Amino acid sequence: MSDLMNQLNETVSYIKSRVKSSAKVGIVLGSGLGNLSEVIEIEEAIPYTDIPNFPTSTVKGHGGKLLFGKLGGASVICMSGRFHFYEGYSAQQVIFPVRVMKLLGVETLLLSNAAGGVNPNYKVGDLMIINDHISFFTANPLIGKNVEELGTRFPDMSEPYCKNLIAKAVAIGEQHNIKLHQGVYTAVTGPTFETHAEYRLIKIIGSDVVGMSTVQENIAAVHCGMKVFAVSVVTDLGIRDDNNVITHEEVLQAAKEAEPKLTLLFTELAKSV
Q1: Could you tell me which residues are beta bridge partners of residue 209?
Q2: Contact status, residue 252 vs residue 32, Cβ threshold 8 Å
């Protein structure tokens, strides 16, 4: 057995010693979106620092606990705080929790993030369902020896985001009068916000938003057979006036204001799968 599988099994065994319930739905909360966790009927909350082999979140706006409980009556596992490549973690460390969720029984992964709007029709506070992504600017987390227990050497990425889940989300949005865009997410390493030239390039290659997360987690989830749904909260505008300086505090505030819509969307989705 590989060292990675040994680590995963150690982590899963520890979590199972603390938590008896099982969940088919996993959730990862992005920057400033941690308040969704307050809606979860929490049965167990395990600090990342207690979990063997787990990284720890170092970014403001990200919690540091693995939550187990009910959302809309559905059993869920929720990462309150994710890990990023720009924090100094390897791509493999970033995706470690996704693989743990898979081994705990998760079949559907709901991802959220705060992103910069590139599409000129987007406004701060809008939600965009990710229907595809561009990952050329980030390290692929599957580089290295493939672990067959997790998935195939060359996973197909023709449907990285589940069309059925997207259709359900669109129906939920129409039912609750939530405006939802659909578009392409481009992942960059961060931690710097993009230059004007970089924003123009990202727009030219066909992206609607840009961010510093999500894609590596998506690749890992698809690799191990999960269905994935992801949504971006537009927290700043990349195509902007020269004097409009982006700050992390403004990103967190915009995410907080959009969060009720995301909470409703994820709650209804969790109930439907």
Answers
A1: 117, 185
A2: yes
- Give the distance, in angstroms, between the CA of residue 221 and the centroid of all CA atoms in the same chain: 11
Comparing 240 with 225, the larger pLDDT belongs to 225
Concatenated DSSP letters for 124-143?
TT-EEEEEEEE-TTS--TT-
Taking the C-alpha atoms of residue 178 and residue 169, their distance in angstroms, rounded to an integer, is 10
Q: What does DSSP assign to residue 243? A: T
Tokens 């787990």 identify what position?
Answer: 54
How far apart are the C-alpha atoms of 217 and 233, rounded to whole Å?
Answer: 17
- What is the DSSP track for 149-199? TT--SS---S-SS-HHHHHHHHHHHHHTT--EEEEEEEE---SSPPPHHHH
Quick check: helix, strand or coil at residue 121? coil
Please tell me the class of the 3-272 domain: alpha beta
Backbone dihedral angles phi then psi of residue 101, each to the nearest 5 degrees: -55, -45
Q: What is the pLDDT of residue 243?
A: 59
Residue 56 structure tokens: 């720890």
Q: Residue 203 to residues 97, 121, 182, 210, 231: CA-CA distances in angstroms?
A: 31, 12, 15, 9, 19
Q: Are strands 127-134 and 65-71 parallel, antiparallel or unpaired?
A: unpaired
pTM score: 0.93
Backbone φ, ψ for residue 17 (5° rounding): -75, -20
Q: Quick check: 54 pLDDT over 80?
A: yes
Q: In the predicted model, what is the mean pLDDT of residues 249-254? A: 72
Q: What percentage of the chain reaches a pLDDT higher than 70?
A: 92
Which distant-in-sequence residues (6+ apart) come within 8 Å of 126 by Cβ? 117, 179, 181, 233, 234, 258
